[in-house]
Amino acid sequence: MDKNRALAWVLLFVLAIIWGSSFILIKKGLIGLTPYELGSLRIVAATLFLLPSAIKRFRLADKKSYPFLISVGLLGSLVPSFLFGIAQTRIESSVTGVINGLTPIFTILVGLIIYKVKQEPKVFLGILVGFIGTAVLISAGKGMALSGINAYALLVVLATMCYGTNLNFVKFHLGHLHPVTVTSVSLIFVGPAAAIHLFGFTDFWPKLVSVEGTVLSTFYIALLGIFGTAIALIIFNKILQITDALFASSVTYLIPIIAVIWGVLDGESLYLMHYIGMIAVGIGVYIANSNRAAYKKKGSTE
Description:
Elements: H1 3-20, H2 22-29, H3 35-57, H4 66-87, H5 93-99, H6 103-115, H7 121-138, H8 151-173, H9 179-200, H10 204-210, H11 214-242, H12 245-249, H13 255-265, H14 272-289
Helix pairs in contact: 1-11, 1-13, 2-5, 2-11, 3-4, 3-9, 3-11, 4-8, 4-9, 5-13, 6-8, 7-14, 9-11
């Protein structure tokens, strides 16, 4: 194993711990914040943390990269922050972490459709199994029962679509930029909008000084913004830089394990159908991601 691959594996495990803990932090943040306050605060915290770096590195990004950096800020940070916050008002953090495992599948689909990435037939089998597992997860009831579809779980699916698109943008359009540049500059494009929303269109500031529990929830989401968004995205983009989009997205094999452990420790209720769905998603992602060597743009000789 070469040094880059060894480094990539270490970073992958660190990233899994950080992102796997994100869902329990969101859950704790929702105790004192609305999902909209939570989403904005997460981005504001991450942007402020990386602001010195963004100011320094902004000039290093060529103007042709701006549209993709804005897209990365939106699809990789801002939009998912709101989607996860809203979704977790109605679904368990552990289930959210497992559905997040669809990210590699959407990475494959976006690569296939937009970038003509070559794939073997077994990849589509993995995609099918993964989606079946997700369908079980979002309709799981007590015991072996299936209930109605939880529409809030579909918001998590939408977030993974954003992540899958973002992965391809970073790999195919921003690979020439340093990971810190990609992360900090993309956040500086969306951070001001999040700040305007947080302080101008929510009750966050009055609640912070008058409502019990808001300060602690703010602390949790500040941690989430700094570690789960800013630092994690730097690590993630570094992995993308030294490997490929599918290896980077395979962090989602490990995220559900961490998320479920946190959920169980926090007393969340999981039924048999949840576990069946989790296993199916894991198998599907594994099958779909087992053809990593073929993940190249059509005609690429990389």
